[in-house]
Amino acid sequence: MTTRTMRALGYFPREGMVRPVELPMESPQEDEVLVRISRVAVSRRDRDLMQDPKAETPAGSDFIVPGHIAVGKVEQVGSLVRDFVPGDLVVPTVRYDCNRCIDARSDLCPYPEYYSDAGLRRAHGFAREYLVTRARYLIGVPSHLEQLALLLTPLSRAEKAHEEAVQVMKRFNFFCYHQPEEYMPSALIAGMGIVGIMTAFLLSLYNYRLTIFCRREADDSRSGVLRPLDLEYINTQWVSTKKLEKCGCCFNQLFETTGDPEFAFKLFPLLTSNSVAVLMDAPAGLSRELEVDIEAGKLIARMVHCNQVILGSIKAGREAFESGVRHLTELADLYHEPLMSLFTHSVPFEKFQDVLDLDSRDAVFPVLEME
Ligand SMILES: [Zn+2]
User: Fold this and answer.
1) Residue 244: pLDDT band by 50, 70, 90 thresholds?
2) CA neighbor of 160 nearest in space, from 66, 279, 41
3) Which CATH number does 156-312 carry?
């Protein structure tokens, strides 16, 4: 008997190589769904993984299928699946639950040995023709969002970070008569990777005075995308954070998406009283080993005197994906063209090497076409 197989990409950490592999075709069990993957986006996180000699492969495999951001269509459903029918557009979530966290909040599970992340850690990702997965790991997306659906995964990161910041800010639910009448809460987004950009789009739907920090010229493709938004753009290549601090530039919320520890520490002095900083990306590669001189005494004194919170946020749970679908619908109405321009490159699966060779400064959100 011959086993049917499908094409996929494999990253072999021991060899440091990415190459096509064959995976067995599976049939969906009763609570599972067979999805034809149509497109996979390649983010900075995926590129980091495909250069990481310590990448964790699934048990029994010497490679991991990369890709944690994908969209596809349902082809077949198991007998117990009620939420999907063939033809539905779906985006897979990233984390596979530990199966013991209440309300499936495995995005907050403290036991990493019991959960895995598709395409990132101990589970194959989505750079493959087909995916068989449990229905609970799929998010239904309305068909009119098909072109933008790949933005849902980075948007879900922004949804989770913003929700956590809002929870912390609830303690600021009082009024001081020293507050100017025109008071409007301010938010700073640091970094213009796809997560930073989607955080800016999400926050534009709320009532914030928005600022984005980036080390790029204002006229390149990324900053151009944000031009329709009402936000202040500061190129920190030319204006130092020290100077901004002296000018009294300060924020109620900070969303740090660069994963650069040195940069993050420079931003903390820009936080106001009762503020919250959300760190949304972990240092990778050499930055993980980086030692930074910090004014620890001043930092802790400021945190205590000003009731500040610094928190880390990674991987979104199902609720964040679901609120992402609602907000993506709003954003698609307002900013369809700028959002489409984030897909800077579209490459057929066979030419995957072209995506890996792209200069990450030009490639905002390149896509592998799997069909
Ligand atoms: Zn758990």
Assistant:
1) confident
2) 279
3) 3.40.50.720
- pLDDT at 133 (0 to 100): 97
Task: Count Cα neighbours of 306 within 13 Å in the Cβ-side half-sphere.
Answer: 22
* Ligand 1 midpoint to CA 98 (Å): 5
Q: How many residues does this entry show for the chain?
A: 371
95 CA distance to ligand 1 middle (Å): 11
pLDDT band at 106 (very low <50, low <70, confident <90, very high): confident
Residue intervals of the chain classified under CATH 3.90.180.10 are 5-140+341-369
Start and end residues for every CATH 3.40.50.720 domain found in the chain: 156-312
Beta strands in 94-152 (DSSP E): 95-96, 116-118, 122-123, 130-134, 138-140
On whether the 5-140+341-369 domain is CATH 3.90.180.10, my answer is yes
Q: Is residue 307 left, alpha or beta, with left meaning phi > 0 and alpha meaning psi from -120 to 50?
A: left
- Is the pLDDT assigned to residue 259 strictly greater than 80? yes
Going from the Cα of 266 to the center of ligand 1, the distance in angstroms, rounded, reads 34
Residue 7 Cα to ligand 1 middle (Å):
32
pLDDT at 248: 75
Q: What whole-number distance in Å separates Cα of residue 277 and Cα of residue 186?
A: 12
Q: In what order do the strands lie in the sheet with 116-118?
A: 95-96, 116-118, 122-123
Q: How far is the CA of 100 from the centre of ligand 1 (A)?
A: 5
- Percent of the chain past pLDDT 70, that is, above it, reads 98
